[in-house]
Design goal:
Elements (H helix, E strand, L loop, with lengths): L3 H23 L10 H22 L16 H24 L27 H16 L3 H30 L1 H9 L9
Length: 193
């Protein structure tokens, strides 16, 4: 029987696969400017979630690395699921708002407009914030500190590499409009960074 966390994970995977298929069907998704960052994000995020799954089952119930909260059984799973759902909604919404300009690789079209509506009103890279929430929620639902740490740190490192490459491409292709937008919005966390 599938748990809600597993179902949400499968929905996440289906979203990511559908985005790659969409790129292929449209003839987009060129990796020329990507510098391999798509594979860095996929590789580190997938490694973190797989490791979190392994640690969830290998760590004994009484381990000091497990979350414990007397009187609140399953709080980590419920909270993790909530964080994952928020991440899935944010990632999906970001894709919809960006529309045909959304790609799984770093690829900016000449004449592309800077999008400042929806979640792009608050942060420049909300789809990556969604990925980070999905991964961290998965680690939290695994119920131990090691899984949580891996699903926060590894995807964050990959996203930081990706954002650096993507921002360079956006400035190079979109110029002043993107620089103006960048000056007024944070990268990943509204009002923080």
């Amino acid at each position: 029987m599938f748990t809600a966390v597993q179902v949400t994970s499968w929905l996440w995977l289906l979203l990511e696969i559908s985005l790659v298929i969409r790129d292929r069907v449209r003839g987009t998704g060129s990796a020329g400017a990507d510098r391999g960052t798509r594979w860095v994000v996929v590789g580190l995020t997938l490694s973190a979630t797989l490791a979190a799954t392994v640690f969830e089952f290998l760590l004994p119930a009484g381990s000091a690395l497990r979350f414990s909260s007397p009187g609140i059984p399953g709080w980590a799973q419920v909270t993790g699921l909530g964080v994952m759902c928020a991440g899935l909604v944010l990632r999906g919404c970001s894709v919809l708002v960006l529309g045909k300009a959304f790609r799984t690789t770093v690829e900016v079209d000449r004449g592309q407009r800077v999008v400042t509506r929806g979640p792009y009103r608050w942060v420049r890279h909300p789809s990556y914030t969604g990925v980070l929430l999905l991964a961290a929620g998965y680690g939290l639902a695994a119920g131990n500190w090691l899984s949580f740490a891996l699903t926060v740190v590894l995807p964050l490192v990959s996203v930081l590499v990706r954002v650096t490459v993507e921002e360079q491409a956006l400035v190079r292709v979109l110029g002043r409009p993107y620089e103006t937008y960048r000056a007024g919005t944070k990268r990943l966390v509204p009002g923080v960074w």
